[in-house]
Amino acid sequence: MARIPMAELSRYLLSGQLCRHGCLRAQTLLRPIATSSARYMTTQTENKSTAPPAPTLDNQPVPLRKQLKEQARALKSTGKKKKKNTDNQTVPGWELTVGIEIHAQLNTARKLFSSAATSFNDTPNSHVALFDVAMPGSQPVFQPETLIPAVRAALALDCDIQRVSRFDRKHYFHWDQPSGYQITQYYEPFARDGKVMLHSRDGIAAEDGDSITVGIKQVQMEQDTAKTTAQPGEVQWLDFNRVGVPLIEIITLPVIHHPATAAAFVRKVQMLLSSVDACVSGMETGGLRADVNVSVRRTDDSDTATLGTRTEIKNLSSFKAVEDAIIAERDRQIAVLESGGVVEGETRGWSLGSTETRRLRGKEGEVDYRYMPDPDLGPVVIGHDLVSHLADSITGVLPDVEVEDLMKRYGLSSKDALALMLLDDGGRVQYFYNVLAALEARLGDDNTTSTSDRQHALLVANWCLHELGKLTDLSSDLQMTAEGQCRVPSAELADILFHLHQRQITSKVAKELLWRSYRGDLGPNGVTRTIESEGLWFEELPDREYAELADAAVQGEEKVLAEFLRFKEGKSKAYPQGKLMFLVGRMMRSGPEQRMDPASAERVLRARIDEVYIPALESKL
């Protein structure tokens, strides 16, 4: 194949220029190139005439969560409702088998084979070395520092680190891979024979019992491709900042048999990679992607060693997508076999909000990658001392250890502990620790028992998970850092919770202060001065006035009070808590809400029911 002329190559590379530092930049536009040829596909250049318009109120980008809601609403309106995933983990008479391949971007400062910096939010095509775009004469130079997070990830997955590994070329032609091949480790990966233990708290299917071990065949290093952004008119914009970014590919053994367990495995792997600081980000930001291989066979099949024909579903970008896509593909394959058909080995796709997989290509369309050892790269030799040092550094930081600590030491539920670990790539749990430490410092030495420590932790966890989450639909808007800081400073939230814990402000005022902190409206005054200047201190009603409100709330509610009498007489097994809260709500609406505490209202009302209202009902019988 003839080399593309330099003029055409320059046009292809977004009309950029080669700077003296060896990077491609688009700071100045070259003069138009007169030569053209129909043999070459050109991409639209990002110049003054084709650059996207500046954001306005009318063309703001739509958040992903809003897109998902709109898609779900559209599916509902057309009658294509999804099945709930609670009872469809198995199909009687059939066995599902799933294997998973996970691609995760490593947390490194440099690319895998060039000195260009890794970049995910910078100007497109601003960190591109000569080798990244396959300029003639450029060669790969392995960056040793990229090996550190890769080994940490493999150790977190309990893999055996191979002393010698080698790189191979995987050949294919696509616009996101300028060299025509991807450098990977097909034959001799750097890690093999790992395993991940999943527990019931991780969300595995009930059919898998309390725990299940998923075996990992191998972990290999490889390059990422360019980022493609689709534009109107079948135009694709390419950002070569992502070319050459180091990835690891994690390949499991086909030992998963339930969709929920597959999703739990991907979620657990993301937690593991985040806990050892190996992965840049999670699925929600594109730092981790999953492909799943799905096959089914009849449970009464005498040939237990042979699996059914598998299909591969590419580029699943969320935990829910993993589970839903597996369920849809399993049901499709079963329907084909039950109708007398044959499942074809093929690659299929999945769209967010869809109810079925779609065919991308079959066997006849599969690419022959023509793997071969890369002649420009030598073997990678990993010393035992490095492996030993990195293994020692991750001891005690793996998620199972931290989840157990959150549950036993702080009294959190497994659901809340896992949520803290998952959100913001581990930043949310660090934020929890920061807020809790600041709150304990404010409370001083008056509350040092283990019981009160747990109460403080539960209060902080509730606000870090739920109230903080209500501030925005997009988690990224919180700007959470790995150090556990965000737009709501941990010290300010601790101040809010201190006054709430001391019953100096109401929950409503606390939520308003949280919203102001998120918007940056508290300013230099801080939490306490804002409360003082605006008269937000809580001056609670005395019990006498609570009792008067309770008397007014039960007027005309003899049928409701009769439920409490039935419970006292043993005619009802459950205390009518719902009826009680209904009456508390009436009290809150009729009284001065800014001076009322729902807990105090409930306490006084409960006492009045036992001491006054029920005896009055009994006297009438």
From TrEMBL:
Alphabetical list of InterPro entries matching this protein: Asn/Gln-tRNA_amidoTrfase_suB/E, Asn/Gln-tRNA_Trfase_suB/E_cat, Asn/Gln_amidotransferase, Asn/Gln_tRNA_amidoTrase-B-like, GatB, Gln-tRNA_amidoTrfase_suB_CS, Gln_synth/guanido_kin_cat_dom
Biased composition (Polar residues): 41-50
Entry keywords, A to Z: ATP-binding, Ligase, Mitochondrion, Nucleotide-binding, Protein biosynthesis
Major enzyme class: ligase
Region annotated Disordered, chain positions: 41-62
Pfam families (UniProt xref): GatB_N
Protein EC: 6.3.5.-
GO cellular component terms attached to this protein's record: glutamyl-tRNA(Gln) amidotransferase complex; mitochondrion
Name of the protein described by the UniProt record: Glutamyl-tRNA(Gln) amidotransferase subunit B, mitochondrial
Source organism per UniProt: Diplogelasinospora grovesii
